Amino acid sequence: MATKTSERDYRYGFSMPDTSVYRSPKGLSKKIVERISYLKGEPDWMRRFRLRSYDIFRAKKMPSWGVNLSNLNFDDIHYFVKPTDKKSNNWSTLPRQIKNTFDKLGIPEAEKNIFAGVGAQYDSEVVYHSLKQNLEKKGVIFLDTDAALKQYPEIFQEYFGKAIPPGDNKFAALNSAVWSGGSFVYVPSGISVEIPLQAYFRINSKAMGQFERTLIIAEPGSNVHYLEACSAPLYSQNSLHSAVVEIFVKKHAKVQYTTIQNWSDNVYNLVTKRAFVKEEGSMRWIDGNIGSKVTMKYPSGVLQEKGAKLEVLSFALASRNQIQDAGGKAIHLAPYTSSNIVSKSISQGGGKSIFRALTRIAKNAKKSKTHMRCDALILDNESKADTFPNFQIDENDVVATHEATVGKIGQEQLFYLMSRGLTEEDATRMIVGGFLEPITREIPLEYALELNRLMNMEIKGF
Hints:
Blueprint: E1 22-23, H1 30-40, H2 44-59, E2 81-82, H3 96-105, H4 107-113, E3 117-122, E4 125-131, H5 133-137, E5 141-144, H6 145-151, H7 153-159, H8 170-178, E6 183-187, E7 197-202, E8 209-210, E9 213-218, E10 223-231, E11 239-241, E12 244-249, E13 254-262, E14 267-277, E15 282-289, E16 294-297, E17 300-303, E18 309-318, E19 323-332, E20 338-347, E21 352-361, E22 369-378, E23 384-393, E24 399-408, H9 411-419, H10 424-440, H11 445-458
Parallel strand pairs: 3-7, 6-9, 7-10, 8-11, 9-12, 10-13, 11-14, 12-14, 13-15, 14-16, 14-17, 15-18, 16-19, 17-19, 18-20, 19-21, 20-22, 21-23, 22-24
Antiparallel strand pairs: 1-2, 3-4, 5-6
């Protein structure tokens, strides 16, 4: 999960020989969109949905705000790479190169020791999936999204594209046209999934786009934690990751969605994530961004009914040649709703971190509360940090607060720790660890330990 400036330093920068069974030509056309749908054996309504989304993608302009994306060449990308003819629920039956990749990443071992279910996506498709039998017996569904389309068509069609329609933005339209893989989670009423479900997304091919689609439905009174991690090899050519995540949190349900993305620094990471939250429901996004060339990601929640809650906790590390543009969005549509958006960012080596957040409180969303906080730590004179908080409030009877800090590591802190025998590098790492602790403590222990190790690898030379 660490991204470095050389393949020697980047632990996840290895690549395997490309043994894919199908690769679409570079560039995107209606013919390629139809080919993807045909190869997947999809129903006609999905083929029409894809083609309509393609037209929307072509019509929409690139975002005029935020990071400059003019160097992203849509014609230099493979939009569908099929790694193998079949997926498996047994690691030993995967093709050798794919199995070796996930062995190196430690996914099979993590499944045995940590998770209630695991999905593993390699390039454009999920190649492995599992769920513990006790959860299956309770009616929990955890499948790759392609399989869910065929096995649970009524549930799938009821929710797919409803939180994030193709017209939402250009990259949501692109994903809707060429989506492949991702996770489908359905938790019945009153069921609590005590151990996290996990998905791992790996790009192996050069100059490809990964467009997984994740759909989570938590019925009333249910509880689930979904955790995803991402990585890719280091190549000289750019790749694109553009996912869409839709979550439906019903009355009194609780969902936590944790992301630790560690794409290599040739990946554009442009993601749309949104949850609809019903009465007294609770949605929590924990969003970690270490790698990528450019990240633009703002997990959001639409608080539709009384007492709905949203929390977005994000952290980002922007190193050399990286821009981390992240934050969150909260839309309050009902009274007594609450939101909390907290961001921690670190910039080093000339990297740039940007906090971008929006809170909108509609008329009649009385007694709503919202809080926004951004803390930025800059480790050298070449790096930058910007904050762009945005409040749009149409109701008087609310509480809205905002805090922001931008600073450098104090010489007094360094002096104190170094006087106790620490090197300057170790003292810096300790200060950074304390800076991030309010967010990293919310991550499962095994991931928090790995994240701290990766951050220690990143924070060096200061």
